[in-house]
């Protein structure tokens, strides 16, 4: 049976706990600010003509700047230049963010609206190792809340004893060769990582 309306959907589940609804914030409190300052990794979601996109963003902890209680600055570091998220934002500013901190079971979720900024003072504020970003997403926050630990506990994400001993998937070079249907020699993994590191900023 396919569920097609919210009433039928909610009939399947218990009523949400009062605190799980009450915890939503529209401004960043000290806990949210501390979480963002400690996070080296965030997942960014956007929506565009082709559908939804999810992209990882990472750097040293605190790489996302808290401009004030309702705005964040997310720098765009050198990447693959597809610009999927950025072009999506040009047409639909709505974004979602999921912040992770290694070893912390909870996550921070933020929903908001982004604009692409290239103001010199904004780029300078988001410099890393002396390199300004190409652009910065200035995100106006609509909603922020801490998400519970159940999914991280189930997955064993931060539990080394659950991690595979050997890489469970092909190397990036192998996957790129097959996905792009390209011939030629495979780039050794150590050379690829060295190349990545040479253009991180």
Count of alpha and pi helical runs: 8
Which sequence of SSEs, written as H and E, runs from N to C?
HHHEEEEHEEHEHHH
Could you say which overall geometry the principal axes of the C-alpha atoms support?
globular
Helical residue percent? 25-40%
Low-confidence stretches: none
Kindly describe this structure.
This protein has 201 residues and is α+β, with helices and mostly antiparallel strands. 29% of the residues lie in helices and 28% in strands. The protein contains eight helices and seven strands; from the N terminus they run H-H-H-E-E-E-E-H-E-E-H-E-H-H-H. A seven-stranded antiparallel sheet has the order 2-1-5-6-7-4-3. A hairpin with a 2-residue loop joins strand 3 and strand 4. The chain is globular.
Task: Please give a handful of descriptors for the protein shown.
201 residues, alpha+beta, 29% helix, globular
What's the SSE blueprint?
Elements: H1 6-11, H2 18-22, H3 30-38, E1 41-48, E2 51-58, E3 65-68, E4 71-76, H4 84-91, E5 94-100, E6 107-117, H5 120-125, E7 135-147, H6 150-155, H7 172-179, H8 189-198
Antiparallel strand pairs: 1-2, 1-5, 3-4, 4-7, 5-6, 6-7
């Amino acid at each position: 049976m396919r569920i097609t309306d919210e009433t039928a959907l909610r009939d399947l589940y218990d009523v949400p706990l009062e605190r799980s609804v009450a915890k939503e914030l529209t401004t960043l409190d000290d806990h949210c600010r501390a979480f963002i300052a400690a996070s080296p990794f965030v997942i960014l979601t956007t929506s565009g003509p082709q559908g939804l996109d999810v992209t990882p963003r990472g750097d040293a902890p605190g790489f996302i700047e808290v401009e004030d209680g309702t705005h964040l600055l997310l720098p765009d570091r050198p990447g693959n230049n597809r610009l999927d998220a950025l072009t999506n934002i040009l047409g639909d500013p709505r974004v979602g963010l999921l912040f992770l901190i290694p070893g912390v079971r909870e996550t921070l979720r933020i929903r908001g609206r982004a604009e692409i900024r290239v103001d010199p003072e904004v780029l300078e504020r988001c410099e890393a190792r002396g390199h300004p970003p190409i652009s910065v997403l200035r995100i106006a926050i609509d909603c922020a809340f801490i998400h519970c630990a159940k999914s991280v506990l189930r997955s064993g994400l931060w539990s080394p004893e659950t991690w595979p001993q050997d890489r469970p998937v092909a190397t990036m070079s192998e996957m790129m060769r097959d996905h792009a249907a390209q011939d030629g020699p495979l780039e050794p993994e150590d050379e690829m990582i060295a190349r990545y590191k040479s253009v991180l900023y």
